[in-house]
Amino acid sequence: DPCTECCCDSGKETAKDTGIKKKKENGEQQLFVPKIFFGTRTHKQISQITRELKRTAYSTVSMTILSSRDYTCIHPTVSSSGSNRNEMCVELLEGKHGKSCLYYHGAHKLGEHHALQSAHRVYQAWDIEDLVSLGKKLRACPYFAARELMVGADIVFCPYNYLLDPQIRESMDINLKDQVVILDEAHNIEDCARESVSYSVTESQLRTAREELDFMVNNNIRQKDHEPLRAVCCSLT
Questions:
Q1: Nearest one of 66, 59, 38 to 118, comparing CA atoms
Q2: Which residue, of 11, 35, 94, 104, is most buried by count of CB atoms within 10 Å of its CB?
Q3: Are both 190 and 210 inside the same structural domain?
Q4: Is 219 a member of any domain?
Q5: Are 42 and 56 in the same domain?
Q6: Does the pTM of the predicted model rise above 0.85?
Q7: Pair (63, 136) in one structural domain
């Protein structure tokens, strides 16, 4: 049924009322529609939310899910490795050993598939398993495809740390300025925020770092930069 509870039904909508801002580009007025970033505690919760999205009238809205390579990598060698999937992926992309990733170069196929579905009005909300399954069929990388889909997505689902950790935001090209952010079960945010700005080191690592910094300072290599760092290591040990 048509919406009757907000200004979009009255014909008098304004940028302020609808949350749509006008931007000037090349001398023309364009409408800026914010994205919705929906953060959850776990990847499993994302699957639950997308399953519920399929049952609503908004199941055809363009979306994407940001997740780690642990969930989305389909390269036979990298996906079967242990905890160094990120490093192995980067090495393939840089061609360090004379090899490249066939799936990475086919990532655009997934975006084209979803665009085709949308054009034929058969597009439906999906979850990570759907994207990975389709990626295997098309021999296309789900990890990088999900990132490409973020450009045209209206809803972006991701774990909390993708929104809270500044390093992850930068690496994933996430800009939250003027966007809508929804945090599911937000009482967990405090712990997640603490983890995002925390780091664990061993005493052995501190001693090794102090020895290397001693070498830098004694050889007058960027001494002003390295002396404060050495003082921190000394105080911690």
A1: 59
A2: 35
A3: no
A4: yes
A5: yes
A6: no
A7: yes
CATH of the domain at 43: 3.40.50.300
Q: Read off the pLDDT of each residue in 145-165 and give the average, rounded to a whole number.
A: 93
Confidence of residue 46 (pLDDT cuts 50, 70, 90): very high
| Residue 15 within any structural domain of the chain | no
β-bridge mates for residue 28, sequence order: 25
DSSP 17-62: HHT-EEEEETTEEEEE---EEEEESSHHHHHHHHHHHTTSTTTTS-
Sign of CA dihedral 186, 146, 52, 7: positive
Based on the fold, state whether residues 181 and 166 are members of the same structural domain: yes
* Residues β-bridged to residue 39: 158, 183
Confidence of residue 80 (pLDDT cuts 50, 70, 90): confident
Boundaries of domain holding 216: 203-236
Distance, CA of 87 to CA of 155 (rounded, Å): 29
Q: What tens digit of pLDDT does each residue of 196-208 get?
A: 788 888 999 999 9
Structural tokens at position 59: 């199941």
The first and second tokens of residue 67, run together, are: 């997740």
